[in-house]
């Protein structure tokens, strides 16, 4: 077979096969697929690009491949940047997913969210339950911009009811970028492994100057004091961090003090942007 799609009398039988304009004798028949030109043995396939796009049959393994994941990751960045691009000054608040609503730390979270909203700026949390919810609730009820960046989990959860602008992520690392990119300060309420990860990631980003002039507030003296003392008396004392790094931490349980530190960070940001 020579690849030409002609009937026995030389008639063209396939509407997708185009004659080469005015030069039928010199130019072989060809099939066009968008910008692609196919000739001779490459002309075999008779579907169009639209047909192939719309045809849902066939194996689906490719949706579990890394190249496809890369596109999904890209899509998360695009969605996140798009949703958050116009966020004004913001503080990202980390904290336990497990704090019950009747706990004093929940009330503190609400007071903090409310006070941060009072500065006219947004609060960003992980969008989950516990103190994340408390901060969103305090901010939302005070009329502030209450943002939640949710994460896909193996169990059903969803964003807490006081998230007014929410984005759900599949990937932790995409979500972590958003926590940092759209905030000028970090506050850590008492929490477990997740909060520790976020506290130390924040500190590492500031230490390595990936982000500048971000204060890291450890809110809740009785909870954080032991860790702070260990950082100072063991980590710092043995030279694993220097004075500057120790100075990044601000330990308090006073909402006004935390808000003051955050406002200084907003001012420092404005001075450099
Ligand atoms: C474990 C439970 C719910 C988990 N739900 C979460 N939703 C959103 N964000 C979460 C969740 N769990 C952890 N995070 C992130 O880590 C921090 C809290 O972790 P911790 O270990 O509880 O300290 C928080 O800042 C989130 O960004 C139901 O019990």
From TrEMBL:
Belongs to the LOG family. It comes from Actinopolyspora mortivallis. GO terms for biological process: cytokinin biosynthetic process. The keyword Amino-acid biosynthesis does not apply. The keyword Thylakoid does not apply. Keywords: Cytokinin biosynthesis, Hydrolase. The lineage of its organism: Bacteria, Bacillati, Actinomycetota, Actinomycetes, Actinopolysporales. This is Cytokinin riboside 5'-monophosphate phosphoribohydrolase. Its EC number is 3.2.2.n1.
């Amino acid at each position: 077979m020579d690849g030409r799609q002609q009937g026995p009398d030389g008639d063209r039988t396939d509407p997708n096969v185009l004659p080469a304009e005015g030069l039928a004798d010199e130019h072989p028949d060809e099939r066009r697929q968008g910008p692609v030109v196919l000739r001779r043995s490459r002309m075999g396939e008779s579907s169009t690009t639209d047909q192939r796009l719309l045809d849902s049959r066939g194996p689906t393994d490719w949706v579990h491949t890394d190249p496809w994941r890369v596109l999904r990751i890209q899509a998360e960045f695009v969605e996140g940047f798009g949703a958050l691009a116009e966020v004004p000054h913001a503080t990202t608040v980390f904290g336990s997913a497990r704090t019950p609503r009747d706990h004093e730390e929940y009330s503190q979270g609400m007071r903090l969210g409310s006070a941060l909203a009072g500065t006219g700026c947004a609060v960003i949390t992980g969008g989950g339950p516990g103190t994340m919810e408390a901060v969103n609730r305090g901010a939302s009820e005070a009329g502030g911009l209450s943002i939640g960046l949710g994460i896909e989990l193996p169990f059903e959860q969803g964003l807490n009811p006081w998230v007014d602008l929410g984005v759900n992520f599949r990937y932790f690392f995409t979500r972590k970028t958003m926590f940092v990119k759209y905030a000028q300060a970090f506050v850590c309420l008492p929490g477990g492994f997740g909060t520790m990860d976020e506290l130390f990631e924040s500190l590492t980003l500031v230490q390595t100057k990936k982000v500048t002039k971000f204060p890291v507030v450890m809110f809740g003296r009785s909870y954080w004091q032991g860790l702070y003392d260990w950082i100072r008396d063991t980590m710092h004392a043995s030279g694993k961090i220097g004075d500057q790094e120790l100075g990044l931490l601000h330990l308090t349980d006073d909402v006004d003090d935390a808000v003051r530190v955050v406002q200084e960070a907003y001012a420092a940001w404005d001075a450099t942007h």
